[in-house]
Amino acid sequence: MAGGKITADNQRNRSIRVAQAFYEALEAKDIDRFATLWTKDAVYRVPATADGSPGQLVGRDAIVSGIGEFFKLFGDTQFEWKIEPMLDPRRVIATWSLDIDLVAGGTYRNRGVAIIQVSGDRIAEFTEYFDTHAFLQTFGND
């Protein structure tokens, strides 16, 4: 880093490291580590929720609280992910799949893709698409 300026390659590597830490925290169900990964005003978007409408959580506290509720339901959690850089060095795209044993019994399996935008060493924007049918089969109000 000449003159303290972050190069595109350095930012790209930083973005990949932040995304890697995100999935590691999810797999470990480490809510404290998860919380450190977000900017205070971060936005977590789900353009198509399980009921078909767009949804979002705004702010680190809302994101951590929302995801933390799911952590309470999860037993053994297996994640697989692949993170790829994008042209904008602050963004990465991640494809993922998960297999989770639920505390109350049963299994939740899903797959999806996320676009993660980093600011410094934190996630500023997170946009995720996943199999809403699989989500409804497990968590829907049938």
TrEMBL record:
Stored Gene3D superfamilies: 3.10.450.50
Domain SnoaL-like: 20-125
One Pfam family named in its UniProt record: SnoaL_2
Superkingdom of the organism of origin: Bacteria
The name this protein goes by in its record: Nuclear transport factor 2 family protein
Species assigned in the record: Nonomuraea marmarensis
